[in-house]
# Entry
Amino acid sequence: MSTFLLEIVTPDHLAYSGDVDGLTVRGIEGEIGILAGHIPFITPLQVAPISIKIGQDYTFISISGGFVEVRKDKVVVLAESAELEQEIDVERAMAAKERAERRIGAKKRNQADIDFDRAELSLKRAMNRIKVHSHIHK
Ligand code: ATP
# Structure
């Protein structure tokens, strides 16, 4: 199987750059598998893990939204944030999850001036990081 260059870029750093055998991303309408020679396209991504296949190994990266662009020569993921499994501070993610859940709970009880959408997005990011940290893909 032929490999291709994958780059994952965030506003502040190059999170990943290397040759891969394939990757799976979660687009707005579901999972998309990308192999060498895939036709060029661009699509938005969900807050979800990306899995990268290199040889027989899989690496997971948490992505907080953005886009994937399949070009002729490489695949570029432009993400709002991206963390490799080993870069995730799981305690920070657990704290963010608890904070978001508390805010969502307060909102449901009609308490406080809470931005529900913001809390839900924060919860999604936290759960995504926890998932990637524990290697669970779905
Ligand atoms: P928090 O409330 O803990 O800041 P957040 O979801 O609001 O979480 P983001 O705004 O998505 O954080 O990310 C800000 C920066 O911090 C990004 O560079 C992101 O990669 C990093 N980051 C956020 N949470 C974690 C984490 N649990 N482990 C490692 N890096 C993280």
